[in-house]
Design a protein that fits this description.
- 58% of the residues are buried.
- The protein has a single domain, classed as MFS general substrate transporter like domains (Growth Hormone, Chain: A).
- By secondary structure, it is mostly helical.
- Helices cover 78% and strands 0% of the residues.
- It is globular, with a radius of gyration of 20 Å.
């Protein structure tokens, strides 16, 4: 590929993941306003928390299915075409959210948005890792993973200036539909991965990448990728994300933009963390770095829910630190997962591993929602209890394949 083609691939994939991040950050900052508007007099704080969990679970379930099915599509029809389709899916259904008339319609749309959200990551990462194979993998992986949190940060800054309230929330879903233009551009102008094209030409017989992942030669790698992806994802959505509706509940009446500010501080830390996670994996090795990240995340998440609270001076500083530490995992995954799988099944393997964790996350978030109600809507207790999942990472990582030798 020419230098201009490689940079076009990087820019397109980065933007696709940035807007993926916008979709991931949308409901944490908008959920309570949407529920207050659509539920009307029936709204209660406990019910708002339950619906936040349901919206999140629907998105995660859709992302799990989309990541596997549309990641598989990338190995069949090409990384670029599959990525363009995914962008059109998540942006189109997000825009339809602005017309939702009740909670169940919104729930269905969040599931459909998730299909595209899940499919972008494996195809974008596979495309960039193959087109930039001679570059520093930690740097390229870090840049790509930072894109998710750049999207969340972008949304938080927009929401600080144009408030999301029960009377004004539909505009943010219309904004989330704008990336459809990017999806069209990707399909029309972005070149395909030369490695994928070469692997298609060399393949004989029918292509069945999903089936191959469960053959004896790759089964261990597939299962370990699923487990290592699931731990930080369950922790992020069943524990960490409660800080935003918590901020809205505590400060929303007097500081309308406080929830967006909270998300902004978290996203700023997360952007740095998701970029440096790949560097950390390269410097310390895959296993040691994952183990240290696990312990650090348990500690800082506990501090966020038990040692501070919204409106306290220390709250946003600890939120920033939690965002930084907890998202080191995802930069780590962006480097590690493509190393586990050969080119012919790389998008499918990465998508299956990363997004299978979202099945567990969907159920974990629903369980957290029930726990939230059982504890009388106490955000700190729910967040603290659910954060214990991070500690499993310190144990599991020592059984993972060591891919340090694959680094270039």
């Amino acid at each position: 590929m020419s230098a201009s083609q490689r940079y076009l691939v990087l820019a397109a994939a980065f933007l696709a993941i940035v807007f993926d991040g916008v979709e991931l950050g949308l409901m944490p900052v908008a959920s309570l306003s949407v529920s207050k508007s659509l539920l009307g007099p029936a709204f209660t704080p406990e019910l708002g928390g339950e619906w936040f969990a349901r919206f999140t679970a629907a998105l995660m379930l859709g992302a799990a299915i989309g990541g596997i099915a549309l990641g598989n599509l990338g190995d069949r029809i090409g990384r670029t075409r599959a990525m363009g389709v995914c962008v059109l899916v998540y942006s189109g259904f997000a825009a339809m959210g602005s017309y939702a008339q009740d909670q169940w319609q919104m729930l269905a749309l969040r599931f459909l948005v998730g299909l595209g959200v899940g499919g972008v990551w494996p195809n974008g990462i596979a495309l960039v890792s193959e087109c930039w194979s001679g570059a520093s993998k930690p740097v390229v992986s870090g840049v790509m993973m930072a894109g998710l949190n750049v999207g969340i940060l972008l949304l938080s800054q927009i929401a600080r200036h144009w408030s999301i309230t029960p009377d004004s929330w539909r505009w943010v879903f219309q904004f989330a539909g704008v990336p459809a233009l990017l999806g069209i551009l990707v399909l029309v102008a972005v070149p395909e991965s030369p490695k994928w094209l070469a692997s298609r030409g060399a393949t004989k017989g029918p292509v069945a990448p999903l089936r191959e992942l469960f053959q004896p030669s790759l089964l261990r790698f597939t299962l370990m990728g699923v487990v290592l992806s699931a731990i930080p994802m369950i922790g992020a959505w069943s524990a960490s994300k409660w800080m935003i509706p918590w901020s809205d509940k505590v400060a929303g009446a007097t500081h309308v933009g406080y929830k967006a500010t909270t998300q902004g501080w978290w996203a700023l830390g997360a952007t740095l963390g998701s970029f440096l996670g790949a560097q950390l994996a390269s410097w310390l090795g895959r296993r040691l770095s994952y183990a240290l990240i696990s312990i650090a995340t348990v500690t800082i998440t506990f501090a966020m829910f038990q040692l501070t609270a919204p409106l306290q001076p220390s709250f946003h500083l600890i939120v920033f630190a939690q965002g930084f530490v907890a998202t080191l995992f995802f930069g780590w995954l962006a480097l590690y997962l493509p190393e586990l799988f050969p080119t012919r099944v790389r998008a499918t393997g990465s998508g299956l591993a990363y997004n299978s964790g979202r099945f567990a996350t969907a159920f974990g978030v629903l369980a957290a929602g029930f726990l939230f109600s059982a504890l009388g809507g106490e955000y700190p207790r729910v967040g603290t209890i659910c954060a214990s999942i991070y500690a499993l990472g310190f144990v599991v990582i020592w059984w993972a394949p060591d891919t340090n030798a694959n680094e270039t």
